[in-house]
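Exercise 7. Predict the joint structure of the components listed below.
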Amino acid sequence: MANTTIIPFGPQHPVLPEPIHLDLELDDERVVQALPSIGYVHRGLELLAERHDFVEMAQVAERICGICSFIHGQGYCQGIERLMGLEVPPRAVYLRTAWAEMSRIQSHLLWLGLSADAFGFESLFQHSWRIREMLVDIIEETTGGRVIFGSCKVGGIRKDVDAETLQRVNRRMREIEAAFDEVANIFRADRTVKQRTVGVGVMSAEDAYALGAVGPVLRASGFASDTRQLGYAAYGELEWEPVVEQAGDCYARCEVRLREISQSIDLIRQCLANMPEGEIEVTFKGKRPKGETMVRLEQPRGEVCYYMSANGQKNLERFRVRTPTFANIAPLVHMLKGCDLADVPVIVLTIDPCVSCTER
Amino acid sequence: MSFLKKSPWILHYAATSCNGCDIELLACLTPLYDVERFGIVNTGNPKHADIFLVTGSVNEESRKVVENLYAQMPDPKAVVAIGACALSGGIFRDAYNVYGGIDQVIPVDVYVPGCAARPESIIDGIVQALAILEERARDRKRQRKVVAS
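Solution:
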């Protein structure tokens, strides 16, 4: 083997808001091999399920990750509700769906900004975060939190949203859509963005499938796989189709996320238009979860699985989460082989790494 | 604090944080809050930084990284711990891999509470750290004069 150099990438790196470490083995400027090492954010969250009450644990589950926070809470609550045989009222289901889509939009906008920053487009970063703040305002108005919503609980939701607020949300969605379309056009048409992303980090559909990629990474390679197709929450009653791109490069992954933002805005509109009236929670006094179950949801980054096992005590016996970024690390290592050192930050960001999800 | 002699640069490290505080910290840099108007710039290099912002508590792996980054920063420097986890371990304090707050490994000057800490309180924390930084810079100058005379 020729002379190779090893360059450490992370754990503290300007493009990474979170710590992940990669050892990049370089031959001149080409990456021969990338070796990831993780563990910088591991807290041991799954064991907390055995110490906390199953109702309290919803709050801990939401803090698995601050970006996909709401969907983690939703997945945990869905699992417990299934174990206890609770039927959540339709209004709560629709509000949960709307919030899940809001959290998807804010996550994608956040990622859009960070990846623009990674290829040196600072003003695009600022613009996407400006739009994100408009959405965070809506989230704060309807749930009370900015990043950790805290609105999902076992049996339903914590607080109802009145009709006037929902109308205001609908109006503000139009403003957000107009502002987003402007930024999305820059992303799609700009020459420098294309130069940094087209043909970079290509992954074929076969590789993506074989390596177990999930979410936008899989859909950008031409696979129409979206866990929302299972029809959990209100997705079975709404009209939508998974977003698919064929190229499998960094640009396709950007495009999938851009189109998903527009799709989520549309889904929120559908939720608001079909919002049922009625109760927002069911009571379950004295009931305890029993048995085991598996829940699959679609997060902004892809499919997440929760395994729960309970034996009728107030604590769960076992709680296990398999997060999308964990599934996407193997495809990432595959994409990094043979790329330029300068492209590494762009490729790492296009899988939208969420390290605190991965390590819990 | 009427004016500053220096534009403070910040270094951010997420030690076992759940991302919530990190997002809010990044939100401080973006148009709505825009701390850059005070001359505050986010840098990736510890050797250029004046204020160290740490989110999340420490675990076995991140302890060494936090110590390293702190040691690489030039004097005078200030440390701001952001969020409930950085203060005491927060909701994860019972978890087996969490050692507790940042002050277990490095001296902390300002504590910013909240889960997740709001951008307003983070900015307030940075402004308080600025006053501490100014004072330390003055002290150093005084010491140098004593040595020189």
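Discussion. The mean pLDDT of chain B is 85.
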